[in-house]
Design a protein that fits this description.
- The chain is an alpha+beta fold and 571 residues long.
- The chain has four domains: 164 residues, 2-Layer Sandwich (Beta-Lactamase), CATH 3.30.450; 89 residues, Beta-Lactamase, CATH 3.30.450; 176 residues, Beta-Lactamase (2-Layer Sandwich); 84 residues, Phosphatase 2c, domain 1 (4-Layer Sandwich).
- The chain has 18 helices and 19 strands.
- The strands form four sheets. The protein has a six-stranded antiparallel β-sheet with strand order 3-2-1-6-5-4, sandwiched between helices.
- The N and C termini lie far apart (85 Å).
- 40% of the residues are buried.
Protein backbone atom coordinates (compact mmCIF):
# COMPACT_ATOMS: atom_id res chain seq x y z
CA UNK A 1 0.00 0.00 0.00
CA UNK A 2 1.43 3.39 -0.99
CA UNK A 3 0.65 6.92 0.13
CA UNK A 4 1.92 10.46 -0.30
CA UNK A 5 5.47 11.40 0.68
CA UNK A 6 4.35 14.78 2.00
CA UNK A 7 4.60 13.72 5.63
CA UNK A 8 7.87 11.95 4.93
CA UNK A 9 9.48 15.07 3.47
CA UNK A 10 8.02 17.39 6.10
CA UNK A 11 9.22 15.47 9.12
CA UNK A 12 12.48 14.02 7.89
CA UNK A 13 14.55 17.04 8.84
CA UNK A 14 13.28 16.87 12.42
CA UNK A 15 13.80 13.13 12.92
CA UNK A 16 16.80 11.17 14.28
CA UNK A 17 18.84 10.88 11.07
CA UNK A 18 20.80 7.65 11.78
CA UNK A 19 17.60 5.64 12.15
CA UNK A 20 16.06 7.29 9.08
CA UNK A 21 19.12 6.34 7.06
CA UNK A 22 18.86 2.76 8.30
CA UNK A 23 15.20 2.49 7.27
CA UNK A 24 15.90 4.09 3.89
CA UNK A 25 18.84 1.74 3.28
CA UNK A 26 16.83 -1.35 4.21
CA UNK A 27 13.97 -0.77 1.75
CA UNK A 28 15.17 -3.11 -0.97
CA UNK A 29 14.52 -6.81 -0.58
CA UNK A 30 12.43 -6.70 2.59
CA UNK A 31 9.30 -8.78 2.89
CA UNK A 32 6.21 -7.12 4.34
CA UNK A 33 6.65 -8.95 7.61
CA UNK A 34 10.31 -7.91 7.83
CA UNK A 35 9.47 -4.29 7.04
CA UNK A 36 6.82 -4.10 9.74
CA UNK A 37 9.11 -5.78 12.28
CA UNK A 38 11.92 -3.34 11.43
CA UNK A 39 9.57 -0.35 11.78
CA UNK A 40 8.48 -1.51 15.24
CA UNK A 41 12.08 -2.08 16.36
CA UNK A 42 13.18 1.37 15.24
CA UNK A 43 10.12 3.04 16.74
CA UNK A 44 10.95 1.46 20.10
CA UNK A 45 14.60 2.50 19.93
CA UNK A 46 13.86 6.00 18.65
CA UNK A 47 11.60 6.77 21.61
CA UNK A 48 13.70 4.86 24.15
CA UNK A 49 10.63 2.70 24.78
CA UNK A 50 9.97 -0.75 26.14
CA UNK A 51 8.16 -2.25 23.14
CA UNK A 52 5.97 -1.44 20.14
CA UNK A 53 2.59 -2.52 18.69
CA UNK A 54 0.91 -2.28 15.30
CA UNK A 55 -2.91 -2.35 15.02
CA UNK A 56 -5.02 -2.45 11.87
CA UNK A 57 -8.75 -2.24 11.15
CA UNK A 58 -10.51 -5.45 10.20
CA UNK A 59 -13.31 -5.29 7.63
CA UNK A 60 -15.77 -2.39 7.76
CA UNK A 61 -15.95 -2.16 11.54
CA UNK A 62 -14.08 0.46 13.49
CA UNK A 63 -12.47 -2.13 15.74
CA UNK A 64 -8.69 -2.51 15.79
CA UNK A 65 -6.88 -5.84 15.80
CA UNK A 66 -3.32 -6.32 17.02
CA UNK A 67 -1.27 -7.17 13.96
CA UNK A 68 2.31 -7.29 15.27
CA UNK A 69 4.40 -6.58 18.34
CA UNK A 70 8.11 -6.21 19.11
CA UNK A 71 9.71 -6.60 22.54
CA UNK A 72 6.49 -8.04 23.97
CA UNK A 73 5.65 -11.69 24.53
CA UNK A 74 2.48 -13.32 23.23
CA UNK A 75 1.00 -13.49 26.72
CA UNK A 76 1.77 -9.84 27.45
CA UNK A 77 0.27 -8.63 24.17
CA UNK A 78 -2.96 -10.62 24.51
CA UNK A 79 -4.98 -7.90 26.34
CA UNK A 80 -4.33 -5.55 23.40
CA UNK A 81 -5.55 -7.99 20.74
CA UNK A 82 -8.83 -6.17 20.06
CA UNK A 83 -9.77 -2.53 20.71
CA UNK A 84 -13.21 -0.97 20.26
CA UNK A 85 -13.71 2.10 18.09
CA UNK A 86 -14.59 4.28 21.09
CA UNK A 87 -11.96 2.94 23.49
CA UNK A 88 -9.77 5.43 25.36
CA UNK A 89 -6.61 3.39 24.69
CA UNK A 90 -3.96 5.34 22.79
CA UNK A 91 -4.07 3.22 19.56
CA UNK A 92 -7.86 3.55 19.29
CA UNK A 93 -7.73 7.30 19.85
CA UNK A 94 -4.92 7.78 17.32
CA UNK A 95 -6.84 5.86 14.66
CA UNK A 96 -10.07 7.71 15.51
CA UNK A 97 -8.63 11.23 15.77
CA UNK A 98 -5.99 10.90 13.05
CA UNK A 99 -3.14 12.41 15.11
CA UNK A 100 -0.53 11.79 17.77
CA UNK A 101 -1.82 10.56 21.16
CA UNK A 102 0.09 9.96 24.36
CA UNK A 103 -1.63 8.37 27.36
CA UNK A 104 0.47 8.58 30.56
CA UNK A 105 0.65 5.63 32.91
CA UNK A 106 -0.47 7.66 35.91
CA UNK A 107 0.55 6.08 39.21
CA UNK A 108 2.59 3.18 37.84
CA UNK A 109 5.12 1.86 40.34
CA UNK A 110 7.68 1.45 37.55
CA UNK A 111 8.13 5.16 36.91
CA UNK A 112 6.70 7.58 34.35
CA UNK A 113 5.34 5.22 31.71
CA UNK A 114 2.69 5.47 29.06
CA UNK A 115 1.78 4.71 25.46
CA UNK A 116 2.46 6.93 22.44
CA UNK A 117 0.47 6.24 19.26
CA UNK A 118 0.22 7.68 15.75
CA UNK A 119 -2.22 6.68 12.99
CA UNK A 120 -1.21 4.51 10.07
CA UNK A 121 -2.53 6.74 7.27
CA UNK A 122 -3.86 5.17 4.08
CA UNK A 123 -5.20 6.92 1.00
CA UNK A 124 -8.66 7.29 2.53
CA UNK A 125 -7.59 8.01 6.10
CA UNK A 126 -6.35 6.02 9.13
CA UNK A 127 -6.22 2.26 8.64
CA UNK A 128 -4.63 1.46 11.99
CA UNK A 129 -2.09 2.72 14.55
CA UNK A 130 1.58 2.37 15.45
CA UNK A 131 2.27 2.57 19.21
CA UNK A 132 5.29 2.58 21.54
CA UNK A 133 5.22 1.82 25.27
CA UNK A 134 7.22 4.73 26.66
CA UNK A 135 9.43 4.75 29.75
CA UNK A 136 10.66 7.77 31.66
CA UNK A 137 10.88 11.44 30.87
CA UNK A 138 7.17 12.05 30.45
CA UNK A 139 5.58 12.79 27.07
CA UNK A 140 7.77 12.19 23.97
CA UNK A 141 9.52 15.25 22.57
CA UNK A 142 8.59 16.97 19.32
CA UNK A 143 11.48 15.23 17.56
CA UNK A 144 10.36 11.84 18.89
CA UNK A 145 6.76 12.48 17.82
CA UNK A 146 7.97 13.46 14.38
CA UNK A 147 10.11 10.33 14.13
CA UNK A 148 7.17 8.12 15.16
CA UNK A 149 4.95 9.69 12.47
CA UNK A 150 7.71 9.24 9.89
CA UNK A 151 8.19 5.59 10.87
CA UNK A 152 4.45 4.97 10.55
CA UNK A 153 4.54 6.46 7.03
CA UNK A 154 7.51 4.26 6.13
CA UNK A 155 5.74 1.19 7.53
CA UNK A 156 2.57 1.72 5.52
CA UNK A 157 4.63 2.23 2.35
CA UNK A 158 6.64 -0.96 2.76
CA UNK A 159 4.48 -3.40 4.75
CA UNK A 160 1.30 -5.24 3.84
CA UNK A 161 -0.85 -4.51 6.87
CA UNK A 162 -2.75 -7.75 6.42
CA UNK A 163 0.39 -9.73 7.33
CA UNK A 164 1.01 -10.72 10.96
CA UNK A 165 4.72 -10.92 11.81
CA UNK A 166 4.57 -12.59 15.19
CA UNK A 167 0.94 -13.73 15.63
CA UNK A 168 1.10 -12.23 19.15
CA UNK A 169 -2.45 -13.02 20.12
CA UNK A 170 -5.53 -14.89 18.98
CA UNK A 171 -7.99 -12.31 17.61
CA UNK A 172 -10.78 -14.75 16.79
CA UNK A 173 -12.89 -13.72 19.76
CA UNK A 174 -13.85 -10.48 21.46
CA UNK A 175 -11.60 -9.33 24.26
CA UNK A 176 -11.91 -6.78 27.00
CA UNK A 177 -9.74 -3.78 26.17
CA UNK A 178 -6.88 -3.07 28.56
CA UNK A 179 -7.64 -0.90 31.54
CA UNK A 180 -5.05 1.53 32.89
CA UNK A 181 -2.04 0.44 34.89
CA UNK A 182 -2.82 -3.28 35.06
CA UNK A 183 -2.55 -3.76 31.31
CA UNK A 184 0.75 -1.87 31.05
CA UNK A 185 2.16 -3.71 34.06
CA UNK A 186 1.19 -7.02 32.48
CA UNK A 187 3.01 -6.01 29.30
CA UNK A 188 6.18 -5.08 31.14
CA UNK A 189 6.09 -8.10 33.45
CA UNK A 190 6.05 -10.55 30.53
CA UNK A 191 8.31 -8.64 28.12
CA UNK A 192 11.08 -10.49 26.34
CA UNK A 193 13.75 -8.31 27.93
CA UNK A 194 14.79 -7.61 31.50
CA UNK A 195 13.23 -4.49 33.01
CA UNK A 196 13.89 -3.28 36.54
CA UNK A 197 13.68 -0.02 38.44
CA UNK A 198 15.87 1.30 41.22
CA UNK A 199 15.47 4.19 43.63
CA UNK A 200 18.02 6.96 44.19
CA UNK A 201 19.97 4.66 46.53
CA UNK A 202 20.09 1.99 43.77
CA UNK A 203 17.77 -0.35 45.68
CA UNK A 204 15.65 -2.47 43.34
CA UNK A 205 11.99 -1.44 43.52
CA UNK A 206 10.65 -3.52 40.61
CA UNK A 207 11.90 -6.40 38.46
CA UNK A 208 9.95 -8.20 35.76
CA UNK A 209 10.14 -11.95 35.23
CA UNK A 210 13.00 -11.75 32.72
CA UNK A 211 15.09 -9.62 35.11
CA UNK A 212 14.52 -12.14 37.91
CA UNK A 213 15.76 -14.96 35.68
CA UNK A 214 18.75 -13.03 34.36
CA UNK A 215 20.02 -11.59 37.64
CA UNK A 216 18.75 -13.84 40.40
CA UNK A 217 17.42 -17.27 39.51
CA UNK A 218 17.49 -18.37 43.15
CA UNK A 219 16.59 -15.17 45.02
CA UNK A 220 14.22 -12.22 45.06
CA UNK A 221 15.65 -8.91 43.95
CA UNK A 222 13.28 -6.42 45.56
CA UNK A 223 14.95 -4.30 48.23
CA UNK A 224 18.51 -5.32 47.33
CA UNK A 225 21.03 -2.73 46.24
CA UNK A 226 21.68 -3.47 42.58
CA UNK A 227 25.45 -3.64 43.05
CA UNK A 228 25.06 -6.24 45.81
CA UNK A 229 23.55 -8.72 43.33
CA UNK A 230 26.48 -10.91 42.16
CA UNK A 231 25.13 -11.30 38.62
CA UNK A 232 25.01 -7.49 38.22
CA UNK A 233 28.74 -7.03 38.91
CA UNK A 234 29.50 -6.78 35.22
CA UNK A 235 32.51 -4.62 34.31
CA UNK A 236 31.26 -1.20 33.21
CA UNK A 237 27.60 -1.63 34.23
CA UNK A 238 27.70 0.34 37.48
CA UNK A 239 29.77 3.15 36.04
CA UNK A 240 27.46 3.58 33.04
CA UNK A 241 24.33 3.52 35.20
CA UNK A 242 25.74 6.10 37.58
CA UNK A 243 26.73 8.29 34.65
CA UNK A 244 23.17 8.26 33.31
CA UNK A 245 21.90 9.25 36.75
CA UNK A 246 24.46 12.04 37.17
CA UNK A 247 23.85 13.50 33.72
CA UNK A 248 20.08 13.07 33.96
CA UNK A 249 19.71 11.62 30.47
CA UNK A 250 19.08 8.26 28.86
CA UNK A 251 22.22 6.24 28.16
CA UNK A 252 22.30 3.16 25.90
CA UNK A 253 25.32 0.89 25.55
CA UNK A 254 26.42 -2.68 24.86
CA UNK A 255 28.25 -4.87 27.40
CA UNK A 256 29.70 -8.39 27.20
CA UNK A 257 27.65 -10.46 29.67
CA UNK A 258 29.70 -13.05 31.60
CA UNK A 259 26.92 -15.52 32.48
CA UNK A 260 26.16 -16.51 28.88
CA UNK A 261 29.09 -14.76 27.11
CA UNK A 262 26.58 -12.83 25.01
CA UNK A 263 26.38 -9.12 24.22
CA UNK A 264 23.66 -7.25 26.12
CA UNK A 265 22.23 -3.88 25.15
CA UNK A 266 21.54 -1.87 28.28
CA UNK A 267 19.29 1.20 28.40
CA UNK A 268 19.25 3.40 31.51
CA UNK A 269 16.42 5.92 31.77
CA UNK A 270 16.61 8.40 34.68
CA UNK A 271 13.19 9.32 36.11
CA UNK A 272 13.17 12.58 38.03
CA UNK A 273 12.92 12.03 41.79
CA UNK A 274 12.12 8.33 41.24
CA UNK A 275 15.43 6.66 40.40
CA UNK A 276 16.17 4.82 37.16
CA UNK A 277 14.52 2.39 34.77
CA UNK A 278 17.03 -0.16 33.46
CA UNK A 279 16.34 -2.57 30.62
CA UNK A 280 18.59 -5.30 29.22
CA UNK A 281 18.12 -7.26 26.03
CA UNK A 282 20.20 -9.16 23.48
CA UNK A 283 22.22 -6.73 21.36
CA UNK A 284 20.84 -7.92 18.04
CA UNK A 285 19.83 -5.64 15.19
CA UNK A 286 18.77 -6.19 11.56
CA UNK A 287 21.78 -6.83 9.36
CA UNK A 288 22.34 -3.61 7.37
CA UNK A 289 23.24 -3.46 3.68
CA UNK A 290 26.75 -2.46 2.68
CA UNK A 291 25.61 1.00 1.64
CA UNK A 292 23.34 1.53 4.62
CA UNK A 293 25.56 0.44 7.47
CA UNK A 294 24.28 2.69 10.22
CA UNK A 295 26.14 4.62 12.87
CA UNK A 296 25.32 2.17 15.65
CA UNK A 297 26.80 -0.78 13.77
CA UNK A 298 29.93 1.19 12.96
CA UNK A 299 30.28 2.27 16.59
CA UNK A 300 29.84 -1.33 17.75
CA UNK A 301 32.50 -2.51 15.30
CA UNK A 302 34.91 0.09 16.62
CA UNK A 303 34.08 -0.82 20.19
CA UNK A 304 34.54 -4.54 19.51
CA UNK A 305 37.89 -3.94 17.79
CA UNK A 306 39.24 -1.68 20.54
CA UNK A 307 37.98 -3.89 23.33
CA UNK A 308 39.46 -6.96 21.64
CA UNK A 309 42.90 -5.35 21.29
CA UNK A 310 42.87 -3.95 24.81
CA UNK A 311 41.58 -7.24 26.23
CA UNK A 312 44.52 -9.12 24.74
CA UNK A 313 46.99 -6.56 26.06
CA UNK A 314 45.46 -6.53 29.52
CA UNK A 315 45.43 -10.33 29.62
CA UNK A 316 49.20 -10.28 29.15
CA UNK A 317 49.72 -7.52 31.73
CA UNK A 318 51.36 -8.99 34.79
CA UNK A 319 51.99 -6.01 37.06
CA UNK A 320 50.10 -2.77 37.72
CA UNK A 321 52.61 -0.87 35.62
CA UNK A 322 52.01 -3.32 32.77
CA UNK A 323 48.30 -2.46 32.95
CA UNK A 324 49.04 1.26 32.64
CA UNK A 325 51.30 0.66 29.65
CA UNK A 326 48.63 -1.44 27.94
CA UNK A 327 46.03 1.30 28.46
CA UNK A 328 48.41 3.97 27.18
CA UNK A 329 49.35 1.95 24.08
CA UNK A 330 45.76 1.16 23.06
CA UNK A 331 43.51 3.90 24.45
CA UNK A 332 45.55 7.00 23.60
CA UNK A 333 45.71 6.38 19.82
CA UNK A 334 42.06 5.33 19.65
CA UNK A 335 40.80 8.60 21.16
CA UNK A 336 43.55 11.01 20.13
CA UNK A 337 44.58 11.42 23.79
CA UNK A 338 48.04 12.45 24.98
CA UNK A 339 48.21 11.15 28.55
CA UNK A 340 47.09 8.29 30.77
CA UNK A 341 47.45 8.01 34.53
CA UNK A 342 46.16 5.27 36.81
CA UNK A 343 45.73 5.89 40.52
CA UNK A 344 44.88 3.27 43.13
CA UNK A 345 43.07 3.58 46.43
CA UNK A 346 45.31 2.56 49.33
CA UNK A 347 43.65 2.99 52.70
CA UNK A 348 42.62 6.65 52.92
CA UNK A 349 45.03 7.88 50.25
CA UNK A 350 45.26 7.81 46.46
CA UNK A 351 48.57 6.59 45.07
CA UNK A 352 49.79 7.11 41.51
CA UNK A 353 50.45 3.64 40.10
CA UNK A 354 52.04 4.86 36.88
CA UNK A 355 51.48 7.41 34.14
CA UNK A 356 52.37 8.13 30.53
CA UNK A 357 52.53 11.67 29.14
CA UNK A 358 53.29 13.38 32.47
CA UNK A 359 56.55 14.42 34.10
CA UNK A 360 57.46 13.20 37.56
CA UNK A 361 57.30 16.68 39.12
CA UNK A 362 53.65 17.11 38.19
CA UNK A 363 52.75 13.59 39.33
CA UNK A 364 54.06 14.40 42.79
CA UNK A 365 51.41 17.15 43.10
CA UNK A 366 48.57 14.64 43.36
CA UNK A 367 50.33 11.49 44.53
CA UNK A 368 49.00 10.28 47.89
CA UNK A 369 46.09 12.72 48.03
CA UNK A 370 43.77 11.98 50.98
CA UNK A 371 40.45 10.47 50.02
CA UNK A 372 38.58 13.38 51.63
CA UNK A 373 40.30 15.95 49.39
CA UNK A 374 38.18 17.89 46.91
CA UNK A 375 39.63 16.67 43.62
CA UNK A 376 38.33 15.06 40.46
CA UNK A 377 39.90 11.70 41.33
CA UNK A 378 38.47 11.55 44.85
CA UNK A 379 35.15 12.84 43.48
CA UNK A 380 34.72 9.97 41.03
CA UNK A 381 35.84 7.44 43.64
CA UNK A 382 33.26 8.66 46.16
CA UNK A 383 30.42 8.81 43.63
CA UNK A 384 31.61 5.97 41.34
CA UNK A 385 30.56 8.25 38.47
CA UNK A 386 32.81 9.28 35.56
CA UNK A 387 33.64 12.97 35.18
CA UNK A 388 34.38 14.47 31.77
CA UNK A 389 36.11 17.86 32.00
CA UNK A 390 36.49 19.61 28.66
CA UNK A 391 38.70 22.62 29.53
CA UNK A 392 40.85 24.10 32.32
CA UNK A 393 38.14 26.71 32.97
CA UNK A 394 35.62 23.93 33.65
CA UNK A 395 38.14 22.16 35.89
CA UNK A 396 38.67 25.30 37.99
CA UNK A 397 34.92 25.88 38.20
CA UNK A 398 34.41 22.35 39.54
CA UNK A 399 37.48 22.32 41.82
CA UNK A 400 38.44 25.93 42.66
CA UNK A 401 40.87 24.78 45.35
CA UNK A 402 42.95 23.03 42.67
CA UNK A 403 43.49 26.00 40.36
CA UNK A 404 47.24 25.67 40.91
CA UNK A 405 47.09 22.08 39.64
CA UNK A 406 45.24 23.08 36.46
CA UNK A 407 47.85 25.78 35.84
CA UNK A 408 50.72 23.32 36.34
CA UNK A 409 49.17 20.54 34.26
CA UNK A 410 50.33 20.05 30.66
CA UNK A 411 46.82 18.84 29.80
CA UNK A 412 43.67 20.79 28.90
CA UNK A 413 40.87 18.17 29.00
CA UNK A 414 40.35 15.04 31.06
CA UNK A 415 38.19 11.94 31.39
CA UNK A 416 38.22 10.76 35.00
CA UNK A 417 36.99 7.15 35.04
CA UNK A 418 36.31 5.25 38.28
CA UNK A 419 37.72 1.73 38.35
CA UNK A 420 35.20 -0.61 39.96
CA UNK A 421 35.94 -4.31 40.47
CA UNK A 422 34.08 -6.91 42.53
CA UNK A 423 31.66 -4.23 43.67
CA UNK A 424 34.38 -1.95 45.09
CA UNK A 425 36.00 1.24 43.82
CA UNK A 426 39.72 0.46 43.60
CA UNK A 427 41.09 3.43 41.73
CA UNK A 428 40.76 5.92 38.89
CA UNK A 429 41.98 6.02 35.29
CA UNK A 430 42.61 9.48 33.83
CA UNK A 431 42.70 9.89 30.05
CA UNK A 432 43.90 13.39 29.15
CA UNK A 433 44.28 15.69 26.14
CA UNK A 434 46.76 18.49 25.45
CA UNK A 435 43.99 20.72 24.04
CA UNK A 436 40.41 21.42 25.15
CA UNK A 437 38.29 18.50 23.99
CA UNK A 438 34.56 17.94 23.63
CA UNK A 439 33.50 14.42 24.65
CA UNK A 440 30.75 13.11 22.39
CA UNK A 441 28.25 10.54 23.58
CA UNK A 442 30.00 7.71 21.73
CA UNK A 443 33.34 8.62 23.34
CA UNK A 444 31.77 8.71 26.79
CA UNK A 445 30.19 5.30 26.32
CA UNK A 446 33.39 3.76 24.96
CA UNK A 447 35.67 5.21 27.64
CA UNK A 448 33.28 4.16 30.39
CA UNK A 449 33.04 0.63 29.00
CA UNK A 450 36.82 0.35 28.72
CA UNK A 451 37.26 1.46 32.32
CA UNK A 452 35.46 -1.70 33.47
CA UNK A 453 38.03 -3.87 31.71
CA UNK A 454 40.91 -1.83 33.12
CA UNK A 455 39.49 -2.22 36.64
CA UNK A 456 39.44 -6.01 36.38
CA UNK A 457 43.01 -6.11 35.05
CA UNK A 458 44.26 -3.70 37.72
CA UNK A 459 42.67 -5.71 40.53
CA UNK A 460 44.35 -8.88 39.26
CA UNK A 461 47.70 -7.08 38.82
CA UNK A 462 47.58 -5.61 42.32
CA UNK A 463 47.10 -9.09 43.77
CA UNK A 464 50.17 -10.20 41.83
CA UNK A 465 52.10 -7.14 43.00
CA UNK A 466 51.20 -7.81 46.63
CA UNK A 467 52.19 -11.50 46.45
CA UNK A 468 55.33 -10.62 44.55
CA UNK A 469 56.37 -8.07 47.18
CA UNK A 470 55.76 -10.52 50.03
CA UNK A 471 57.65 -13.30 48.28
CA UNK A 472 60.51 -10.98 47.41
CA UNK A 473 60.80 -9.87 51.02
CA UNK A 474 60.75 -13.48 52.21
CA UNK A 475 63.41 -14.52 49.75
CA UNK A 476 65.68 -11.59 50.54
CA UNK A 477 65.35 -12.38 54.22
CA UNK A 478 66.44 -15.98 53.69
CA UNK A 479 69.36 -15.35 51.35
CA UNK A 480 72.70 -14.53 53.00
CA UNK A 481 72.88 -10.85 53.94
CA UNK A 482 76.70 -11.11 53.83
CA UNK A 483 79.24 -13.80 53.09
CA UNK A 484 81.62 -15.06 55.78
CA UNK A 485 85.27 -14.02 55.86
CA UNK A 486 87.24 -17.17 55.19
CA UNK A 487 90.96 -17.82 55.77
CA UNK A 488 91.72 -19.59 52.51
CA UNK A 489 88.93 -18.41 50.18
CA UNK A 490 87.50 -15.07 49.07
CA UNK A 491 83.76 -15.47 48.41
CA UNK A 492 81.56 -13.25 46.20
CA UNK A 493 78.01 -13.84 44.94
CA UNK A 494 75.41 -12.18 42.72
CA UNK A 495 71.75 -13.13 42.32
CA UNK A 496 70.58 -12.46 38.74
CA UNK A 497 67.07 -13.62 37.69
CA UNK A 498 66.92 -15.41 34.36
CA UNK A 499 64.02 -13.43 32.90
CA UNK A 500 60.96 -11.21 33.35
CA UNK A 501 58.71 -12.32 36.18
CA UNK A 502 61.35 -14.65 37.65
CA UNK A 503 62.64 -12.34 40.37
CA UNK A 504 61.06 -14.36 43.17
CA UNK A 505 61.21 -18.09 43.52
CA UNK A 506 63.07 -20.96 45.13
CA UNK A 507 66.61 -20.33 43.93
CA UNK A 508 69.27 -19.71 46.56
CA UNK A 509 72.95 -19.92 47.40
CA UNK A 510 74.94 -20.16 50.62
CA UNK A 511 78.51 -20.27 51.89
CA UNK A 512 79.02 -22.28 55.09
CA UNK A 513 82.15 -22.30 57.24
CA UNK A 514 83.12 -25.85 58.25
CA UNK A 515 85.71 -27.25 60.63
CA UNK A 516 89.38 -27.66 59.77
CA UNK A 517 89.36 -24.56 57.52
CA UNK A 518 86.94 -26.13 55.08
CA UNK A 519 84.12 -24.30 53.24
CA UNK A 520 80.80 -25.59 51.84
CA UNK A 521 79.32 -23.73 48.86
CA UNK A 522 75.68 -24.52 48.07
CA UNK A 523 73.45 -23.65 45.11
CA UNK A 524 69.81 -24.77 45.25
CA UNK A 525 66.75 -24.56 43.03
CA UNK A 526 63.13 -25.20 43.96
CA UNK A 527 60.89 -25.49 40.92
CA UNK A 528 58.42 -22.63 40.46
CA UNK A 529 58.12 -19.05 41.65
CA UNK A 530 56.13 -17.46 44.44
CA UNK A 531 55.63 -17.44 48.20
CA UNK A 532 55.27 -21.23 48.50
CA UNK A 533 58.54 -21.82 46.62
CA UNK A 534 60.38 -19.18 48.68
CA UNK A 535 59.14 -20.85 51.88
CA UNK A 536 60.33 -24.25 50.62
CA UNK A 537 63.68 -22.67 49.88
CA UNK A 538 63.92 -21.55 53.51
CA UNK A 539 63.21 -25.05 54.83
CA UNK A 540 65.77 -26.66 52.52
CA UNK A 541 68.38 -24.03 53.37
CA UNK A 542 67.91 -24.81 57.05
CA UNK A 543 68.16 -28.56 56.37
CA UNK A 544 71.41 -28.16 54.40
CA UNK A 545 72.98 -25.99 57.12
CA UNK A 546 71.99 -28.52 59.80
CA UNK A 547 73.48 -31.44 57.88
CA UNK A 548 76.61 -29.45 57.05
CA UNK A 549 77.16 -28.65 60.74
CA UNK A 550 77.36 -32.42 61.35
CA UNK A 551 80.49 -32.48 59.15
CA UNK A 552 78.87 -34.91 56.74
CA UNK A 553 80.45 -35.41 53.33
CA UNK A 554 78.80 -33.65 50.34
CA UNK A 555 77.84 -37.00 48.79
CA UNK A 556 75.82 -37.72 51.97
CA UNK A 557 74.27 -34.24 52.26
CA UNK A 558 73.03 -34.36 48.65
CA UNK A 559 70.80 -37.48 48.92
CA UNK A 560 69.46 -36.42 52.32
CA UNK A 561 68.63 -32.98 50.95
CA UNK A 562 67.00 -34.44 47.83
CA UNK A 563 64.78 -36.48 50.13
CA UNK A 564 63.52 -33.14 51.42
CA UNK A 565 62.78 -31.90 47.90
CA UNK A 566 66.09 -30.31 46.77
CA UNK A 567 66.74 -30.51 43.02
CA UNK A 568 70.49 -30.32 42.24
CA UNK A 569 71.45 -27.69 39.65
CA UNK A 570 71.21 -28.95 36.11
CA UNK A 571 69.01 -31.90 37.06
Amino acid sequence: MKTSNTLLDKDAEESPSPRLHLLAAMEAGLSSAEALSLALQQATAGLGGLGALAHTRRGTTGRLSLLAAEGITRTAAEPWAALGEEDDAAPARAAREGGFVWVPGGGLTIGDSGMASVPLLGVDGPVGALSVITAGGGEPTAVQRSFLRWTATWAIQHADLSVTTQNPADTSRERTPPQGDEAVLALIRDMGEAVLTVDDAWRITYANDFAERLLASDRRLLGDELWEVPAARVPGLEVQCRRASAEGKTVEFDLPWPSDRGLRRVRVVPVRDRGQIISLCDAVEPVPTEVGQNARTQARDRLASRMSELTMALAEALTSKDVVRAVADHVRPAFGADGVAVEALEGVHIRVVDAVGYNSEFLRLFDRLPLNANSAVTDVLRTRTPRFVESPAEFVRLYPNLEYMAAASPKRAWAFLPLIASGHAIGCCVVSFSRPHTFGEEERVLLTALSGMVAQALERARLYDAEHTRAQGLQRGLLPQSLPSLPAVSAAARYLPAGRGDEVGGDWYDVIRLSSGRVAMVIGDVMGHGIAEAATMGRLRTAVRTLADLDMDPDSIGPLSEAHGLRPPGA
